[in-house]
Amino acid sequence: MKIAPSILSADFASIASQIGVVEAAGADYLHVDVMDGRFVPNLTWGPKVVADLRKVSRLPFDCHLMIVEPERYVDAFREAGAGIITFHVEATPHAQRLLTHIRSIGARAGIAICPQTPVAMLEDIVDDADLILVMSVNPGFGGQSFIPRSLEKIRQARALIDARNPRCELEVDGGVGEANLREICAAGANVLVMGTSIFGATDPATELVRLRLLSA
Question: Of 33, 36, 128, 130, which is the active-site residue?
Answer without folding.
Answer: 33
